[in-house]
Amino acid sequence: MTIRVLLADDQALLRSAFKVLVDSEPDMEVVGEASDGAQAVRLAKAESADVVLMDIRMPGTDGLAATRMISDDPAMSHVRVVMLTTFEVDEYVVQSLRAGASGFLGKGAEPDELLGAIRIAAAGEALLSPVATKGLIAKFLAQGDGSDSEAPARSERLDALTGREREVLVQVAGGLSNDEIAERLEVSPLTVKTHVNRAMAKLGARDRAQLVVIAYESGLVRPRGE
Q: Where is the HTH luxR-type domain (predicted)?
């Protein structure tokens, strides 16, 4: 299957560079380009995009608002958003994940990293760039954004998980793949995938990135150093 990619960035030159790179791959194609968030939302739906490379800072409707709009639209439940940032240590990173982004990547990433990010997001995996470590994400999540009204509800939702699902969720929050979790828990990768899918369904998570957010926000996993 060909991965349908939408490019959303207010810099035309950067979009052009991304387009050449993406279109050079046999398993993906650029189906649209947007210069602001509102246009990105319209095109993501109209062009049935699989992955949106979304700049955080754009004029008008920014990438954060656009990501939230895509995430909230049931008709685009399959769309995965990868946020592009100039500075990876960014206050908007966690807000992006909370808004529904599958992950983020610095604009200075190598071409192979960018292409890999698209494939990872399309597969429903969580994407955290090498510079932005899990510990950094945890730190931001612990600081919060001044709105913790959903924290108790998130914690209560964990009651729906079985003991094994909680155990798997902890491993997912640690950034481990299904194969790595399977080896650590001495079960099959298929069993891990089943537990992950059930946890996502029970917690209303779109993908693994959202599971990571919930694991930290609920207190199931604590930031490093605490």
A: 154-219
**CA 160 to CA 200: how far, in whole Å?**
11
Q: In this structure, what CATH number is given to the domain that contains residue 28? A: 3.40.50.2300
Q: Please, which residues have CB within 8 angstroms of residue 75's CB and are 6 or more apart in sequence?
A: 45
Structure tokens that stand for 21 in this block = 């790179």
pLDDT at 51: 96
d(CA 136, CA 94): 10
DSSP-H helix ranges across 24-122: 37-46, 63-72, 92-99, 111-122
Residue 184, Cβ density class (10 Å: 0-12 exposed, 13-18 middle, ≥19 buried): middle
223 inside domain: no
pLDDT tens-digit map of 128-174: 544 444 555 555 555 554 445 555 555 677 888 999 999 999 888 87
Sort residue 146 into left (φ over 0), alpha (ψ -120 to 50) or beta.
Answer: left
Structural domain containing residue 184: 147-218
Q: Are residues 167 and 197 in the same domain?
A: yes
Query: For residue 187, what pLDDT is reported?
Result: 93
- CA 210 from centre of chain: 7
Give yes or no: residues 84 and 187 share one domain: no
Query: Is residue 132 domain-shared with residue 156, that is, in the same domain?
Result: no
Q: Is residue 203 a contact partner of residue 195, using CB atoms and an 8 Å limit? A: no
Work out how many domains the chain is built from and give that number.
2
